[in-house]
Amino acid sequence: MSEPIINYVLRSSLSLALLYLFFTLFLGKDKMHRFNRFYLIASLIFSFVIPLLTIPAFFTSTTVTKLVDVSNLQENYFQIKTSTLKQESQFNFENLIPILYFSISLLFLIRFISNLIRLEISKSINPSIDYEGYRIVLIKDMVLPYSFLSTIYVNSVEYKEGRIPKELFAHEISHISQRHSLDIIFIELLKVFFWFNPLIYLFKKAIMLNHEYLADEAVTFSENNSSSYINILLNIAIRNSNSYLASSFNYSFTKKRLLMITKNKFSKTATLKRIAAIPLFLALGLLVINAQETKSIRSTWTTPPPGFFDFKSQTGKPSLIFIDCAISNIDLNKIDLAAMEKVVVYKDETAVKRFGDKGKDGVIEFTARKKESEIPKDQTIFAEVSSIPLNPKDIIEPFFVVEEMPEFMGGGDDLMIYWISRNLKYPQEAVKQKLEGRVTVTFYIDTKGKPQNIEVIKSTNSIFDAEAKRVIRSMPDWTPGRQRGVPVNVHKETDIIFKL
Question: Domain 413-498 in CATH: superfamily?
Answer without folding.
Answer: TonB (3.30.2420.10)
